[in-house]
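seq as requested:
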Amino acid sequence: MGISLGRRFAWAAAAFAAVALALGGTPAGALASVGTTSFVDDFNGPAGASPNPQTWSFDTGGEWGYGAQLQYYTSRPSNASLDGQGHLVISANAETYVGPDGVMRQYTSARLQTWKKLDFTYGSISARIQVPAGKGLWPGFWAFGDDAYSSNDWPNCGEIDVMEFNGANPNLLLGTLHGPQTGVPNGYAVGGTEQSATPFSAGFHTYEADWAPTGVRFLVDGRTYATITPSQLPAGSGWPFNHPFFVALDLAVGDWVGAPDASTRFPAKMLVDWVRVAPSSWTGPTGSGPTSAGTGPTSTGTAPSTAKTRTKRAVARAAGTTRTGHKSHKRSCRRGARCARRHRVHHHRRPHRKDHGPVGDWGAKPISARIA
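struct tokens:
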């Protein structure tokens, strides 16, 4: 696995320190090394400031999900900015907006990612987040293979959905792995769920994925609710979780969660207290077959719930919603295979682009850490 653990952390700490010095102190949301944490962004800074561009880039545009998503992603402070109280606020707003690409949407929001700026291989990725509730809202905290926007197509690049919710059912947490499966254009979606008596949207919770060479486990507030290993994948599946990944945060509107209705409150806000990438003492599952143990978030005080390893489509059915058919969406796209390739990064969440890179890459040098 390369250089020793101690040397890896020393290298990562030195890299982060160099960036901090180059930035001239500790700007809003600056990179930091805290204890044994290899990376943390605690989003400290003045209200209205943008998140640190040395770490975060914006994906922008209005054509996501082959039109199934209803938002236009922007980089405006009204859609993503610090609140001056140590939070990043991603806001989905109900407003008519026409972007520079000429696409009109009735909602705006933001999607941020660390592509080419922060990547990692193995370890713990976590964030303390308060998600919004409401029909048509789709908050997410993800990690993608670092080749997702360039040489390797989704789902071959791999995707770890550390947290996502159907806003109409804020009591049901989803943690999912996506990867390639022979004969299945959109690959597999295998993961677990955690049901809570109290909506997760009622407060902050820590969402985490521990990633080892032999498996990924999903946790909420420090408790494991699902563990996925290669042996649990459908026949013909690949395990692409063996190379660097980057982080993404977003709040989408529409797609498989359906459209908002009169009960959905706007602006809808997703508050992020911090994001961390750290070493993990977990070295992977010791047994074989599915493993899961959920006790629910600490705020509920309810009896344990059992997480089931199942596809996200089955979860959608159980929640009373189903994803929009990806194959029909693909057929509806008339801009060719090259366009379709870019669309497939996270369930067709990429916009039509003339290039393969994400919008908003400020050109900062990448910071990579193999942390386990």
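Helices lie at 5-23, 312-318, 326-332, 337-343.
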